[in-house]
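Is fructose -6-phosphate placement plausible here? Inputs below.
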Amino acid sequence: MCGIFAAVNQNPVTQHLLTGLSCLSYRGYDSSGIAVIENGLIRRQRAAGKLENLRQLVEGNPIQGLIGIAHTRWATHGLPTEKNAHPHMTEEVAVAHNGIVENHHSLKLRLEAQGCEFQSETDSESIAQLITFHLRRGMSCQDALRVALQEIEGSYGLVVLFRQQPDQLYVARRGSPLVIGRSNDGYFVSSDENALSGLATQVYHLQDGELGRLSTSLFRLRDIQGNQKACRFVDFHQMHVDSGKDGFDHFMLKEIHEQPAVFERCLRQYLSEDQERLEYPIPGSILEKVSRLTIVACGTSFYAGQVAKYWIERVAGLPVDVDIASEFRYRQAPLDQQSLAVFVSQSGETADTYAALQHARKRGLTCLAIVNVVNSTIAREADYVLPIHAGTEVGVASTKAFIAQLTTFLGLTLALGRASAYLGAEAERALVAEMLNFPEQMSQLISQKSMYSAISRELRHCSNALFLGRGISSALAQEGALKLKEISYIHAEAYPAGELKHGPLALVDEHLPVIMIAPRDELLGKSLSNLREVAARGGRIILFSDKEGIEECRDFIVQGHALPPVHELLQPLQYTIPLQLLAYYTALIRGNDVDQPRNLAKSVTVE
Ligand code: F6R
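Reply from A.M.:
I modeled the complex. Tokens:
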């Protein structure tokens, strides 16, 4: 989603701005732009489409200066055109903005009535126009910005250049992250700490309600009322950024292949010395008090929560609610103070999940974050954090982060089972022993390229697909359908197989591929009966099950893929792999941009 990069430096900044933007590009974007102060004037270049378009524009018409701001835009208000790309500017001011100006319509009407001429369809332009309006009424740069921010409703991470102050960069935050990086030659600012790698030695995470002014040698911080504030930079421990594809065609494929190592890293992070249990950095006194869990997340992270619900209810005997973050805070659910609220987010920056966390905190719940990015906003604001140790995930479609979220949840399940005395030591030992062998089994499954290619040929020309599962596999079916639709653009639905007769069976005919996830568990017999109902209506069934399950259905399925036996609690991790790879190879055969699917962003920082 939208990304900000800015610099004020003793050396020319244009190259830094372009490099900064390319570090942000994995988040998904549809246009980009930079603005630099050159010889006392703000100069801007913007381009729709890939960053390469902007790069060529800047090469053809270079702009140079010691201070500049840059942005990758993911369209929310207005089409992804050059005119709507950031920075937005007037003669006096240039602005790059992440977030949403909720009252932009009324601001625009008010400013237009005063003679301001808007150039774009975006909400963000109202910030540049509003600041300019206050400047023209005689306010100083800082006051014009401060007063404008008080009038804006919504969220922002903001970097601002003023023509009047060609050596000062302003930054402000409310609800959308910004990190300031200090180097020997000046300051860099970004909405994503990764983009500061190799540049900054120390960082400061701007807090909500703060407004900063930077020059090459000075950083001054105030609150929005104008009161000075102190801040403390901390040493920057750079996250390892996987910049290359390591010989794979796509980041997504590379990240799928990393999953055995990710699983092992995550497991070993929490493994006790005697290798018999997983130990989590949450005090036993907290876990023992938990009477209910509320898991809140979006997208793939939400489906990880759905899988965890089945595990925790079964192994720890605790009730679990799983909520979509964008619904959670608006549905006025009565929240129990003894509940543990768990927020799951790969990026740790998803706006809805963050807002849900703030909501839960206000209601006095203990908040646990399960995140990949450990310095993220969600991680910083939770009471407890469980990092998933997946490493940087670049592919927009989440794969290794899902596996790492499941691994972390499985460990949490064991910790809760132990705390509630529901889980015996012997059962835990047996599972941990199986977990230690599991990476090897994952690798074997990932290597079966011919199986996934065969499925992709089956799905290649279809417009719809149905994913089915029962019990915990119904949660996996949802993740399988999401993966397929987001990168192959095939419409896919997921249902608990037992629900089929209550409506979706009407969709089944000889054109509909039906992907069934049926591992060996207590529901296998029921799953296969549901499958016969599909077969009786001519559905083209692709079945994932064990060897006997496949044999039993041999005469009515189009394809059957047998997975080797594993501990029942590991089955969701195991059955995830074919679902990811069938989506990958289907998207590939359809010629889609696998790593950056249309319309999607890696980090969703607006509501
Ligand atoms: C799908 C996908 C998204 C994310 C969702 C939440 O492959 O990646 O559905 O899972 O946007 O993102 P995080 O986990 O960063 O909060």
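Short version: The mean pLDDT is 94.
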